[in-house]
Design a protein that fits this description.
heterodimer, A: mainly alpha, 7 helices, 2% strand, flat
């Protein structure tokens, strides 16, 4: 779908949409998402939905969900894929560039500034104490996200046993062998194509990354 | 590490993962093992990434900063941005192939591989190079509670980290 829309395609599933969303409006919406979504993927996704679906009505709820489900399969950060996909859909290639830049520049700048600020206080005893508690929480949250990813990929019924078994092998390989990550991903591709075929990955669950 | 090497490391981690955090095992392999950043800095990056705005995967900005300063932060975000955008031209094709059993199988295989490695990485972040027996019980309990709450959902990640920080101040000094 291109950014230029005919009047016929401007109404999709009950949502009025101009032929191409103005780039300034697009930039404003994504800048709000990038600068206000404290806490990671869940709040980013929440703000995307609020701005794009509810406030500006550029997308229907169903379109948004379908695009999100598709982007769960993208390499890297899923929500960057969703940003690019939606930006391209609403205003073509320029919309893609504006959306990705307007979302990532504030978020990246805030993250870099927080890191720079952190390095000036990291040697304080209080900061060390804070991290002694926040660190294990972060490790636990990472495990929680990993488990949720895996659970979304599981098939139903008896075939779930094979999926859990493969997950256990991957954990063991990560813990007890020196196998490289790329090698295990290649194994995953081959094993998946041969033995783990079937239902598509579910889109629900942790919006994570 | 030179800027090109750093860019390649972040690009590879992004390209060979499904979801921002899934690239962590590959980044650990390329940055921690050779000694460019420490295990402690990985934990710090993940924590800052969770407290900042934007997707969780932007912890790479923090990690890039630790590896190469402000330029490293820029390199990390640029490298992490490119692979997901492949989805834009690929979307039309993938939409048609989504229901193909073997494509679903490949995605499942990669997802389970990266999830398994991520679980192993989470364990490593908790115990570092020590044995699990040497980790204080309260830290193990914090990690287990955080994992359970993350799986269940409903509590803001920043609140969860703040709770861990309070427990750390009380018990970690």
């Amino acid at each position: 779908m291109t950014g230029k829309r005919s009047s016929r395609s401007s109404r999709v599933r009950g949502v009025e949409r101009p032929p191409s969303v103005p780039l300034t409006a697009l930039a404003r919406a994504w800048a709000i998402i990038g600068s206000q979504s404290v806490g990671g993927g869940a709040s980013t996704l929440f703000l995307m939905r609020r701005e794009l679906v509810e406030r500006y009505r550029w997308l229907s709820a169903r379109e948004f969900l379908e695009d999100y489900a598709l982007c769960k399969l993208s390499p890297g950060i899923n929500l960057i894929a969703l940003t690019g996909l939606v930006g391209n859909k609403l205003a073509g290639p320029r919309g893609l560039v504006v959306s990705v830049a307007a979302m990532l520049l504030p978020a990246g700048a805030i993250t870099a500034l927080m890191t720079a600020g952190y390095t000036t206080v990291r040697d304080e005893p209080l900061v060390a104490a804070v991290l002694s508690g926040a660190g294990p929480v972060t490790a636990g949250m990472t495990a929680g996200v990993a488990f949720t990813f895996a659970r979304q990929a599981m098939r139903r019924g008896w075939r779930a046993g094979a999926d859990w078994g493969y997950l256990a092998l991957a954990v063991a390989a990560g813990l007890f062998t020196g196998v490289s990550t790329l090698a295990l991903i290649a194994v995953g591709l081959a094993v998946g194509a041969l033995f783990l075929r079937g239902e598509t990955t579910r889109a629900s669950g942790d919006p994570g990354t | 590490m030179d800027p090109v090497g750093l860019f390649t490391a972040f690009l590879k981690a992004s390209a060979f993962s499904v979801g921002g955090l899934s690239g962590l095992p590959l980044l650990r392999e390329q940055l921690v093992v050779p000694g460019f950043v420490s295990e402690q800095q990985v934990v710090e990056s993940l924590t800052i990434g969770r407290l900042s705005t934007g997707p969780n995967g932007l912890y790479v900005v923090s990690l890039g900063y630790f590896a190469y300063g402000w330029a490293g932060a820029g390199i990390a975000i640029l490298a992490a941005t490119l692979p997901p955008l492949l989805m834009v031209p690929a979307a039309a094709v993938i939409r048609r192939q989504l229901l193909s059993p073997w494509v679903a199988g490949m995605v499942r295989g990669v997802t389970l591989s990266t999830s398994g490695l991520l679980l192993a990485t989470a364990y490593t972040l908790l115990v570092r190079d020590a044995a699990i027996a040497s980790v204080p019980v309260w830290q193990i309990a914090l990690a287990l509670v955080a994992a359970a709450v993350t799986i269940r959902g409903g509590i803001h990640p920043a609140l969860l980290i703040a709770g861990g920080a309070v427990v750390g101040v009380a018990l970690g000094r």
